[in-house]
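[job 4417] fold queue: 2 targets
>>> target A
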Amino acid sequence: MTKKAIYSCLAVLLLVSVVLAGCAKPQPTTAPAPTVTVTAAPAPAVTVTPGAAPAVTVTAAPAPAVTVTPKPAPVTVTATPAPAPTATKPQPIKLRMVAAIAVNEAIVKYADRWRKAVNERSGGELTIDLIGGPEVIPAFDQHEAARKGVVDLMYAITGYYESAVPVAATQALSRLSSPAEERQVGYYDLMDKAHREKLNVRYLGRANFGAKAYTFVTKPVTKLGDLVGVPIRTSRTTAPFAKALGASGVTLAGSEVYAALERGLVQGVMTWISSFHGGRYQELVKYIIDYPFYETNDAILVNLDVWNKLPKNLQDLLTNTMIEFEKGTIEYTQGYERTLLIDMADNYGMRKISFASPDDAQKYLAMAFDSYWEQLGKSLSADEIAQLRKMLKS
């Protein structure tokens, strides 16, 4: 083909292209895509084929993908409550109690009733064990054991520790009608204060009241003079009285009295009916001088350090139970005293005797009280003696 022909063809093609470009419909304007969480599909390819002209392919670039990340919904977490702590039950308090005389004697048995009542009413919070009597700790050493906390409680004979707490011995000299009256007139408070200060113990109260001391003899007497020179077993409490009567006071341990009576070393005993019967002295002694004199002289004591550590509810329990038992002690004490007297009369031939002269009877009782107050005057002031004698109507 000649150059002229080639140029002619190119010119025709150029002309056709211009015509076609002018006749083509305008393409619609694509609106912007809304903002949605959609990934736009790629635009279709538009292919224009002009006659014999080579195909021109225009490919629209795909719109960029718009990714919307949804906001996570709030998550509510409910915490499981922790289990409530289990309260630890306090361990029961255990205390030890000793008795100044044999635990089988009637006066100790009433104190033991008090102990058992406290244990039961405490609901398991407190247990008091009665560990024994003088066979565990000698009677005259028990107050020191209570002072030092070797034992926690003590059924005490107050005359046994007169040297440590002189006012304690005045229990025997009370002529009041009841423990309640002793509390009313201030005697209880006086006793408690003295025991706290001098013996490191709490004076809870009386375990017995209403039983009296007597003089028991192996031979009958009809007047005061018949007692002069008679060997009589006495205690610290009754020794001044025996001396005032002109009798020969003999101090013996309780375990030695029966044998001394058998051998005639003593011919009488000054003591309380319970102790007399408990020692079986009625087997050898057949006469009781029927003028009762001293009041029961016993008490329940608690070591002060132990007391101060007890919770208030247990302190109240001990105190209130003691007051309750004091109210019942006269009936109990006098009841067992009558029972023992009947037994000694019916089964051992015990006889009550009295002096021929009423004056002798009055002198006998006056000697009992005056001699002991005189003895206590060695350790108590004259003012204290006067106060106590008035308080106790003694």
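>>> target B
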Amino acid sequence: MAALPFVAQPVMPQPYPGGPPPGFQPYPAPSALPVTETDYARFYRTPAWRGWKPVVLVIAAFAAMQILGSVILGIAMGIMFVASPEDVEALFGATDSLEEFDVQAFLAQLMASKEIFIANFISLGALLPVCFLLSFLIMRQRPGYLSSVTGRFRWAWFGPVVGVIGVICIAIVGFLVWSPVIAGEQTVGLIPDTWLLLITVIVIVPFQSAAEEYLCRGLVFRGVTSFFGAKPSTGLIIGAVASTLIFMGLHLSTDVGQNVFYAFFGLTACWLTWRTGGLEAAIALHLANNMVGMSSLPFTGLTSEMFDRSAGATSWQGVLLQIVQLVLAIAAVELLVRWRRPVRTSAPGLATGSQIATMPWMTTRPGMTATPASPALQPPQLLAAVPAAHPAQSTWPPGSPPQ
């Protein structure tokens, strides 16, 4: 059989001479928001999640806390040096050697000065915008999603929650705070710093309470939980324990009773956050507890005994009453959840068109379920988009007469 003569074939042009055809859509970038129904604790586990991001997020948050604290407390210390140098001398000259230095007594005496007391709450409150900024820059989620899964702070939900929890805190924490006054063991009245302390409790303490929740139950809880995409229940437990231990450590207490309360408080706040789909309930609990707990300060003044966190500083009766308060808060919020039914999960990434990691022809990460992609995101049909200048040959070799 004679070999067919070689015929040079025309060079095929590129698929898109002069640019892609109309309607062509490139693959979208991985979404920084969940593309499947996701609860608050796992909201950082998105197609754009990378293991280094939560680590950098938490480290940056605590670095910012140290910087803000150092600067603001340093300014307050300078004001103390100018306004009352004798108080500073008494504070730092209480011991003659490092062996006699009592850290807890020093911190209690330091917090008893109005300058340091106010500066401490201002430095913590200043973390609020820092948490929003870090979540946006590192995790690429707008600040509203740090408040709840709906992308905003739900004031309509926060109102009834803070009202109910406030009543519980007034009944229990108010009793613990004001019982010495009722018993005649402590006197109250207007003091030179009444208005300054009153403004601090009413204006600054709410921001401090919210900032601690955004830090511990927002960044830390979410960040740790995001590492357990394939085991969400394990992630919830480990994330709650990790954020609670950090929350407990931030209070620098060596008293067992106080640390038990801080542990119960942290775990309760984590449960409220997961159960309600946002930080509103946890902030309401923190806010009510702190404001009621400090309600007597503007009328009794600041004393070092109020800030004593050394071993044996707290009675177990008081700790048990505060734990009862937390249990009642859980029960009250559970009833509100069943009544009001707040949004607990969401998938805002579906609306952004950035769901490349969940397209059916791609491999998803562990713990993520593939969802059907929209028609606009189907793989572009490259062959169909080739210009019709080169129709398919129906004969071989090319140029031979049709059969």
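[job 4417] complete. Note on B: The first strand starts at residue 38 and ends at 39.
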